[in-house]
Amino acid sequence: MGPHPAVAAIRLAVRRVLHDILTDQTPPTPHERPPSPLVLVACSGGADSMALASALAFEAPRLGVRAGGVTVDHQLQAGSGARAEEVVQRLRDLGLDPVESVRVTVGRSGGPEAAARDARYAALDAAAVRHGAAAVLLGHTRDDQAETVLLGLARGSGIRSLSGMAAVSGAGGRYRRPFLQLDRQTARRACMAQSLPVWDDPHNSDPAYTRSRLRHEGLPALEKALGKGVVEALARTAQLSRDDADALDTWARQAEETVRDAAGLLECAKLRALPPAVRRRVLRRAAIEAGAPAGSLFARHIEEVDRLITAWRGQGAINLPGRVVARRQGGRLVIRQG
């Protein structure tokens, strides 16, 4: 008799990702034994990441992959250190090695959720480098993807924001998300079928957090109004939006080379001839290159800069995040540190 259907589903998802990771590895020289890559799982102890850890522990040895784990202690709740050590022990019980707990200090920039995310990814990046890991697996599910799309829609940040989380992201494709096509309940059922202990983070049900309100109030209300299938439709929207955004980004990179003069300045007349979606991407890229933080650069900022091209009335300079200033001078758009 085979494994529980939920267990089979999570293992298949991880197996596919591990195959991709192995394919991406640099081939060894002739007569050289191929190295055994290390793959880490980021595990909070919740159902999604525990299911992911169990699937990695099962599949990795069968493919000649070393498997380890990292848990991040955000120090935001009483007893977080002891809980992190419990997670470390659970990962070791699964057979993962190396395993470690990393303590971080969460700042305040961008709000509590964004600050915690930034601290977590910085810790995971450092752990991957420290251990020489080929990849880090993240337990985001289709439900998480749907929530991310809705949050992007609420911000009005454009199609890139609607594209949600990528299956592969980070420097060199470090982060892999095997569960984006699986729902949250599949991961939880897999844990139950394997008698895996899980920890339910109280922050996930705390209405003080935007994502928590969306999860427990917003999405259920949408499903009540529109019927079942909302989560699947939003996840599908994310993939379609990502495909479109990738194509527009490529177009913008190519177009940028044609709208600069010999000195490298952006020519307003040539910018205006571009389709708006392409032009605004060129402007965003130029602002980021000048030093504007990508995470603080919103659609309203780019729209103001765009008016220097499309609605020029002699207006003054536009101040952007990161002390970057955009102004129009002699038919050229100048974006630089103020």
Automatic annotation (TrEMBL):
ATP binds at residues 44-49. The keyword Transferase does not apply. CDD domains: TilS_N. It comes from the Bacteria. Pfam families: ATP_bind_3, TilS. SUPFAM superfamilies: Adenine nucleotide alpha hydrolases-like, MesJ substrate recognition domain-like. It catalyses: cytidine(34) in tRNA(Ile2) + L-lysine + ATP = lysidine(34) in tRNA(Ile2) + AMP + diphosphate + H(+). Residues 266-333 form the tRNA(Ile)-lysidine synthase substrate-binding domain. Residues 39-217 form the tRNA(Ile)-lysidine/2-thiocytidine synthase N-terminal domain. It is found in: Cytoplasm. Keywords: ATP-binding, Cytoplasm, Ligase, Nucleotide-binding, tRNA processing. Its EC number is 6.3.4.19. The keyword RNA-binding does not apply. The N-terminal region contains the highly conserved SGGXDS motif, predicted to be a P-loop motif involved in ATP binding. Belongs to the tRNA(Ile)-lysidine synthase family. Ligates lysine onto the cytidine present at position 34 of the AUA codon-specific tRNA(Ile) that contains the anticodon CAU, in an ATP-dependent manner. Cytidine is converted to lysidine, thus changing the amino acid specificity of the tRNA from methionine to isoleucine. NCBIfam families: lysidine_TilS_N. This is tRNA(Ile)-lysidine synthase. It comes from Streptomyces glaucus. The gene is tilS.
